Amino acid sequence: MLWTRISAPASTAARAISRWMAVCGICLLLTEGILARANEDLLSAPRLKWQAPWVTGVIAVGLDLFIDPIAVAVGYWVWFVPGEIYYGIPLLNFVGWFVLMLLAPLAWRYSSRGARLGGTGASC
């Protein structure tokens, strides 16, 4: 489960990866709930191969548009080079989230298909 705590002290990188995986999982679940029909999922439905990545990217940017202004106002993070378009948040931040979340379902589908076929993922 993504929300478990590790008893040993975790590095900053491990915590960052864990949090990114949680965000990725939430976006993927929302995408599956929006797009999937009965008896299909993101991994097996051919029609979702390209729809899911785009919708996941849009959901991630939508969440980021909502969360980032609050996090900046509270002081959770500060931008070294403030943006001028949206609450001082650089445009590259939103582009980055979109690209990462566009690639996440593709990587998930690629790695899962290889595991199901007994390969390394290269058979996709």
Order of H and E elements:
HHH
Q: Which term fits the overall shape?
A: elongated
How much helical structure, as a percent, in the residues?
Answer: 55-70%
What is the tally of beta strands? 0
Radius of gyration: 17 Å
Major beta sheet summary: none
Regions with little confidence, pLDDT below 50 for 5+ residues: 1-9
Mean pLDDT: 74
**Class from helix and strand fractions:** mainly alpha
Beta-strand percentage range: under 5%
Keywords, separated by commas or semicolons:
disordered N terminus; 124 residues; Carotenoid biosynthesis protein; CruF-like; membrane; transmembrane; 62% helix; 3 helices; mainly alpha
Task: Produce a short descriptive summary.
This is Carotenoid biosynthesis protein. With 124 residues, the chain is mostly helical.
Give an overview in words.
The chain has helices spanning 12-35, 48-74, 91-116. The radius of gyration is 17 Å and the shape is elongated. The chain is 62% helix and 0% strand. The longest helix has 27 residues, at 48-74. It has one domain (12-116). Mean pLDDT is 74; it is low at 1-9. With 124 residues, the protein is mainly alpha-helical.
